[in-house]
Amino acid sequence: MTQEPRPSTVDRFDDDDYPAYTMGRAAEMIGATPAFLRAVGEARLIAPLRSEGGHRRYSRYQLRIAARARDLVDHGTPVDAACRIVILEDQLDEALRLNERLRDDQDGGGDRTG
């Protein structure tokens, strides 16, 4: 039985989805508090992974999302509303990408005889 090669530590840190950051470090990186990160987790904006010891671990991707919510909160938006806004913005972006792809497929798949 052959094993897949394990990614090196450097490769993991290059991976935006690798849960590399502890709660304290993550909060420091986005200029927030650990309580803010717990709140955005409770609002289901992000779902940090847990270490074997049960500690929350965050990826760079998750921190970018949390930072967007923090910016809204800094401008007076309640945390729950900020999380919902970020979720809806992402859903809208995805819908626009899908519509564009469907339009491209439709334009490219038509009759080109005339």
UniProtKB/TrEMBL annotation:
Q: Which GO terms describe its molecular function?
A: DNA binding
Q: Name one Pfam family in it.
A: MerR_1
Positions of the HTH merR-type domain: 20-88
Q: List, in alphabetical order, the GO biological process terms annotated in this UniProt record.
A: regulation of DNA-templated transcription
PROSITE patterns the UniProt entry points to: HTH_MERR_2
The record's InterPro entries line, in alphabetical order, gives: DNA-bd_dom_put_sf, MerR-type_HTH_dom
**Protein name (database record):** MerR family transcriptional regulator
**Originating species:** Streptantibioticus silvisoli
